[in-house]
Amino acid sequence: MEMDTPAGRNALDAAARGWVGKPLDRVDGRPKVTGRAIYAYETMQGPATAYGYVVEASIGKGSIVSIDAQAAERAPGVVLVLTHLNAPAQGQGNHHEAHPVLTGPEVAYYGQPVAFVVAETFEEARAAAYLVRVRYDRAPGRYALRANLDRARAPRVASADSAVGDFDAGYAASPVRLDEIYTTPLQSHAMMEPHATLASWDGDQLTLHTSNQMLNQGRQAVARTLQVPVEKVRLVSPYIGGGFGAKLWVNADAILAAIAARQLSRPVKTALTRQQVFHVTTHRSDTIQRIRLGADQEGRLQAIGHDSYSGNLPSEPTFEAAAMQTRTLYAGANRLTRHRVAPLDIPVASSMRAPGEAVGLLALEIAMDELAEKLDLDPIELRLRNEPREDPERHVPYSSRHLVACLQEGSRRFGWAARSPRPGQVRDGRQLVGMGVAAATRGNPLELSRASVRLGPDGVATVRMAMTDIGTGTYTILTQIAADMLGLSPDHVRMEIGDTAFPQASGSGGSFGAASSGSALFDACDRLRAKLAAAAGVDPGAARFADGRLEAGGQSRALVDLVGASGVEADGEIRPGETLKAFSQQSYGAHFAEVGVDVDTGEVRLRRMLGVFTAGRILNAKTARSQAIGGMVFGIGAALEEGLTLDPRFGFYVNHDLAEYHVPVHADVPEIDAIFLPELDDAANPLKSKGIGELGICGAGAALANAIYNACGARIRDYPITLDKLLGALPTQS
Amino acid sequence: MKAFTYERAASIAQAASASAVPGARIIAGGTNLLDLMKLQVETPTRLIDINRLALDVIEDTPEGGLRIGATVRNSDLAADPRVRRRYGVLSRALLAGASAQLRNKATTGGNLLQRTRCYYFYDVTKPCNKRSPGSGCAAMEGFNRIHAVLGASSQCIATNPSDMAVAFRVLDANVETAGADGRSRSIPIAEFHRLPGATPSVETDLRAGEMITAVTLPPPPPGVQIYRKVRDRASYAFALVSVAAVVDTSGGRIRSARFAFGGLAPKPWRIGTSEEVLANAAASASSFNAAANIVLRGARGYGGNDFKIPLARRTLSAVLAQATRA
Ligand SMILES: Cc1cc2nc3c(=O)[nH]c(=O)nc-3n(C[C@H](O)[C@H](O)[C@H](O)COP(=O)(O)OP(=O)(O)OC[C@H]3O[C@@H](n4cnc5c(N)ncnc54)[C@H](O)[C@@H]3O)c2cc1C
Ligand code: SF4
Question: Which CATH architecture has domain A40-140+195-271?
Answer without folding.
Answer: 2-Layer Sandwich (3.30)
